[in-house]
Amino acid sequence: MKLIQRMSLTSRIGLLFFLVSVLIFSGVGTYLYRSLAGQLEFRDDQELMGKISLMRHLAEESDSIAAIRKDPHYFLDAAASHDRLIIMLKDVDGNIILHTNSDQGSLPTIAVLPLEMNPVPRSITLLWTSTGLTARAIAAQGKVRSGEKIVIVVARTASDRMELLKAYRVEIGMAALCGTLLAALLGYILVRRGLRPVRLIAGQASSITAHRLDTRLDLSSAPQELHELVQAFNAMLDRLDGSFQRLSQFSADLAHDLRTPLNNLMVQTQVALVQARSVEDYQGLLISNVEEYERLTRMVESMLFLARVEHTHVMLNKSALSLPEELQRIADYFEGLADEAGVRLTVEAGGRVYADAILLRRAIGNLVANAIPYTPRGATIVLKGVMTADGATVSVVNPGAGIAAQHIPHVFNRFYRGDAARSNSATSTGLGLAIVQSIMALHGGRATVTSEENGLTEFSLIFPAH
């Protein structure tokens, strides 16, 4: 079994083709052999029944048993040219009147067909002569003109038929062997030729490396049966290419975002060390460094959170939460920051949401923190919460310049800052919206965004019903 498992697909199919050929040729050969044997046996039986009828007729033409003993040439003529044919004539006491082929041995006693019955195939008996030869025989009563009854036995040995069948069996065996080998060889060649497209596809696949993930297998060169496999492989390459591109972009963005605060720390420290500074200068330097440290800490914590979410290491503690209470809690939390930015926070909510309270507050908090810097002074940010047939939707709506349409599909990507108007690399880690999307994925929901130029921007969190 292990040897078969190590064999190539071509060899496996070739071996199976060989086994099938063996079965087919063996079956056909056996059928032909049995068919010929049956035909020969049928012909022998017909000859036996014809001979027994002929012997009865010759007996009726004979005057007496003594006349047969004196002149048996009619019976001998009937057996002439049949060296495998045995004709025995006996009287009612079992005494042998005539035996045409005594060199092939005597015959055992078999059932005798009555005088009034004609020979039929089931009257024929298979027996062995005293010399060990296989023979088919038939016995029947006969009557001569004097009224004396005799027993006529006609037998035919199967030696010539067996020799013919033996030779035929050898020929069939040789033909089957040659046919099997030829069929297996042709099958192997055809299978190898038929699998050529698979080898071509394998060659194309082996040429794809990490630097050539944009290469796709040629669907037109693949046979119809492999189209589904090629399409699935190309789809897998699409996913790998996309993941690789995102990973490369993520690595570049991460390096860039880490380099900025580290450079700030290093440059500020180096400038401070050029000459002696006052205590106030050193305190200002330390305060500035602390801000950069806090930024790095937030970035690391966000990255750790996203990593745990991707590996499903975050356990959810879902419960039914009041939307008005939760949104008002968040509005109160950001009240100070909103006042400083000159904007207002209002809540328009009703119903309940089934979610993890801590993660819900973090997701909505990220949206509010993201909305405040981009809301004009004197404007209002609205926190909405509504129940729907499929669950609950929480939205954060703010007026402002809006997000350009080409950036909207990417705003939830990590470190994405395509819109310079909405970026604030000095204070933001660029991971807030990515965390929002991950939290919604944990809840089985999704995050969406719509934005109008110089109009309203609305981030929505859609929670499924529990």
In brief, what are we looking at here?
With 466 residues, this protein is an alpha+beta fold.
Task: Give the helix/strand layout.
Layout: H1 2-6, H2 9-61, H3 65-70, H4 73-79, E1 85-91, E2 96-99, E3 112-113, E4 125-128, E5 134-143, E6 149-157, H5 159-194, H6 196-206, H7 227-273, H8 279-310, E7 318-322, H9 323-333, H10 335-341, E8 344-349, E9 352-356, H11 357-371, E10 380-388, E11 391-399, H12 432-442, E12 446-451, E13 456-464
Parallel strand pairs: 3-5, 8-10
Antiparallel strand pairs: 1-2, 1-6, 4-5, 5-6, 7-9, 10-11, 11-13, 12-13
Helix pairs in contact: 2-5, 7-8, 8-12, 9-11, 11-12
Radius of gyration (CA) equals 52 Å
Output the helix-strand order. Answer: HHHHEEEEEEHHHHEHHEEHEEHEE
Shape: rod-shaped
Count of strand segments: 13
Distance between the termini: 51 Å
Average pLDDT number: 85
Strand content: 15-25%
| Largest sheet report | 6 strands, mixed
Oligomer: single chain
The residue ranges in which pLDDT falls below 50 over 5 or more consecutive positions are 420-425
